[in-house]
Amino acid sequence: MRRTRFTWNVLTTAVWLVIGAGVCPTARAEVRLPNVFGSHMVLQQDKPLIIWGWAQANETVTVQMAGASQTAQAHERGEWKAELPAMKAGGPYTLTVSGSSTVRLEDVMVGEVWLCSGQSNMEMGIGMARDGEKEIAAANYPGIRLLMITNRWTPEPRTDVEGTWKVCSPATIAEGGWSGFSAAGYYFGRELHQKLGVTVGLIDATWGGTRIESWTPPEGFAAVPALKQEYERLQLGDPRNAAHQQRLDQVLQETERWLAAAKQSLAQRANVSPMPVYPEELLPPHELQNRTALYNGMIHPLHPFALRGAIWYQGESNSSEGMLYAERMKALIAGWRQVWGEGDFPFYFVQIAPFTYGHKPEVIGEFWEAQAAAQAVPNSGMVIINDIGDLKDIHPANKQEVGRRLALWALAKTYGAKGVVHAGPSFKAMSVEGDKLRLSFEGVGGGLASRDGKPLSWFEVVDADEGGFVKAEARIDGSTVVLSAPGVNRPAAMRFAWSMLAEPNLMNAEGLPAGAFRAGTMPRRDLMALKVPEAKDYQLVYDLDLTKLGPKVAYQVDNHARLQKPFDRIAYCLELQRAEGRTDYVYVSMDAFGTDLGKIGVPTVKSGARFQQNVSNMNVFSNVKGIVTGTGLAGGNLEFWPDNYGAANIAKVPNASAQAYDFGDEPSAPADGYGSMQVHNHDAKQTLFALNHWSEAGRADVGIGNQPKGSPDWTFAANAGSWQAMRLRVLVRCK
């Protein structure tokens, strides 16, 4: 996404606190309006029209338009506000504000006003979108008016913006921004103008590469319990807040103590300790991506300018957050609605398109799920565009259809247009029918269909007993879809379009696509209990969730101090779940190689565990292709240590290389180093399992069998983050 980076310092803070919110113009006698008002603007029909601005302190101003008149008195800071009665669509009118001077705005229309906001896919101008030159040449619509807000973030809420209302024409639609006015916003407004026959005003407040938090007001964070800590952090940066004042007082006391000590050290020609650092949490928003920064600079100055509603296209910069994004959407919508004070005005948004985002493929499925969940907010709706994306471009060019689909929501839900199908099929329920699943949908319109006439794509199912998700055969049966798959006898769960590369073909007869969803309950299989008969004779010593790795090894279960009986066998079971739901596992048991239960887990410095030795009578069970399984196997060896290590075969392990990291390596300083927990079958030239570099959490090395490429023992694989789930159990057989 397009992104701009900024730097910050304390001096900048001071400057922004003076000028960032806009200088109050009370020193000037003339009457002034904020730039959200201007000639050629559109005022929202059927809502009270709030007009505000500045004048001399205590001055009386008169606002007049279309025979309506209202007076208001400026307070001591020169701010005034007046309210004209609601009007029906029409115009042009002249709006006059008079006092010691007069402001006259010409060609003012009353119609429908929408705020268009988000990051670069909403910012993307008409000139960058599909058929840009052709569309610009045809953009002669006097009944569409455009206001583009100049990009600016600020630490404090501003009182004004830079921007000028313009009549839509080939010249004005192509001016400014990222190659012109928002294409998605324009095509949305064009559709409404053509269908409703009234003037439409569009406000473009967008910035590429930005996160949703920056657009959200404090009121939004306060409204969502899941964001309580973020709201508290915001309050700490507000100098009007008691928490800020208390913390700042502590800082000042610390600084005064340091100053006194520094003066004493200076007098004694002694060293001075470092000066206390001003806490960042006490700063107001000080970067583009900080919470409220863009709300302060580009949204706050707009209200209470009356709106019909808002459209939103954003998410790429938050796309790794999963369900947290649903909470962020709730905060944005609640915050905007609260500060505008117009009730639950319509809020329609676009689900981000398929693209190679750089995450694990299924992460975007979880993000799409979060976006869909935000539709639980009243009077909101989501446009799905998985059929018009571009896997090679994060900015799909077909903004005409994006705008049209947004307009369908508005026409159907805001304006009550009859017979408008505004959304594609959405999942309703799932039932199990023997070895098949039946899915029912809402929003089928004229019926379910395949966009390209081919079999339905991107459906997957998982069996209750075996394996992970596999491709499903999907057929349309009336308003339902029936799923089945060879080898899946007890389907337990399904998912649809659960990949960032998914461009599925399920749609309704009106051509609107279905979005990603999942249903059912993923089976929780204990493969060790199911596949390893001897495991019933062993007792659990340690159970470790490897997704929670870090500098400190924290077992979810630790029984080593409780188990007092002697033991003659030790076993390890590693399970790794793939993105599609399949779980790879290996279980290996061996004659006990020690008597201290505290040393058979992850070999940390604290545990004192270091083993580089052969082990005997291995029993190996695994579903990973190529692993040599069986009982009483010879050729086992351990490489357990917390140290760094090199590739030299210092222990002269048979079949090991002296150049490659495998089953014959050499520990080296420091003792608290990279770390190796590996069990091998050197007779078979195999790593059975490896856990290395566990302090690096998601960049640890975790694998079963030999690594296909690179070091056979997974050294430097840094692949822990690629697994959906990882579990390591350590067991013993008591005598």
List the helices and strands and how they pair.
Layout lengths: L9 H10 L22 E3 L4 E6 L5 E6 L2 E6 L5 E6 L5 E9 L3 E17 L1 H4 L8 H6 L3 E8 L16 E4 L1 H4 L9 H14 L3 E7 L5 H4 L2 H6 L4 H9 L5 H26 L25 H7 L9 E5 L10 H17 L6 E4 L10 H13 L6 E4 L15 H16 L11 E8 L2 E7 L5 E3 L8 E5 L6 E2 L1 E5 L2 E5 L6 E6 L9 E3 L8 E4 L6 H5 L7 E7 L11 E2 L8 E11 L5 E9 L19 E5 L2 E5 L7 E4 L2 E6 L2 E3 L19 E3 L7 E6 L4 E7 L8 E4 L20 E10 L1
Parallel strand pairs: 1-7, 7-10, 7-11, 8-10, 11-12, 12-13
Antiparallel strand pairs: 2-5, 3-4, 3-6, 6-7, 8-9, 14-15, 15-20, 16-22, 17-18, 17-21, 19-20, 21-23, 24-25, 24-37, 26-27, 26-37, 27-29, 28-31, 29-30, 31-34, 32-33, 34-35, 35-36
